[in-house]
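Margin note: ligand = flavin-adenine dinucleotide.
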Amino acid sequence: MERIKKGALWVFCEVQANELLPVGLQLLGRGKTLAEESNRPLYAVVLGKIPQESVKLLHASGADEVIMSVGAALEEKLEKPYADSLIALAKQFEPDILLVGATPFGRAFAPRVAAALQTGLTADCTELSIEEESGLLLQTRPAFGGNMMATIRTATSRPQMATARPGVLPLPEPMEVEDRDPVIIEDNGELSVVKLLKETAIERGADISQSKIIVAAGRGIGQKKNLKLVQALADKLGGAVGSTRPLVDMGFCPYSSQIGQTGYSVAPDLLICCGISGAVQHLAGIGGAKTVIAINTDPKAPIFAVADYKIVGDCVSVLENLIKALD
Ligand SMILES: Cc1cc2nc3c(=O)[nH]c(=O)nc-3n(C[C@H](O)[C@H](O)[C@H](O)COP(=O)(O)OP(=O)(O)OC[C@H]3O[C@@H](n4cnc5c(N)ncnc54)[C@H](O)[C@@H]3O)c2cc1C
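Resulting structure:
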């Protein structure tokens, strides 16, 4: 057990259908920088057994060690035994920082862990950094309906806990690493009284938080029928369709396409914004986009402040022309 040091930075890495979810790797990528800046070791924590190739991917993504808790209670992914196991690990090894992906499971499970450890939890961070003087974790997230960004510190209680949504942070480039065993901890937690009878995947289209190319529509698209043009351009570019919240509220687009504070965070290589004003709540979800092209009739639209390429004009005719040019 001497491989595990106290005061480390831990990233809980969630597994679904035997695959590591990308958000854990994204947190490891940022965790590596945070760990280096604050001189802490970086550990990936998984609950339940994962294959050796997944252990290697965690090392390749920056983890100095992989802690794998195994036991009968962890054979099904249920909040209570998972939380109990992480609480027991945290009590034993006293991490200084604990990061969790804000997936539906993470959102339900992380508060249980924080409450049991009597520490705080900053949910849905869009930025994580280290305060130079104190070495404390700076946890930044939108506040007051997204009208301002708040940076929160957990000054006294430990661990400092934060969640970040999938897609907010970039995936790290895997490094070349030697194959190393995880540190296996036996979990003696109680079996859950809840039984998982069946898991059913919900058909919700492409996961825009993982899309490399997104063509997104806002209210400026006008009529619902014009969304066919957005879909056509996305298809031509091999990308997905995104939208603003009003289009979801109007029933033009499914929630799975909504980008922003109350939708998905995206980090595509290319984002084309069609008739989107650029409200703060929408911009909260596009901070990870590498190249942004905005099309808007209003040259003063706030979206242009974050755009690399600006097209002042009617998005319907610009879309038609772009599709024609790609034919
Ligand atoms: C608590 C809270 C959470 C929210 N969460 C989200 C969220 O997650 N995601 C989100 O998107 N919003 C969210 N909102 C709503 C947000 O405040 C904005 O209202 C919304 O983003 C605006 O969407 P829009 O850009 O499509 O529409 P508008 O703001 O109405 O903008 C339409 C734009 O289209 C332009 N335009 C008009 N005609 C054309 C044309 N023919 N060609 C090109 N451009 C044209 C206009 O100049 C304008 O800039 C939230 C709001 C609150 C209060």
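The two ends are 61 Å apart (CA to CA).
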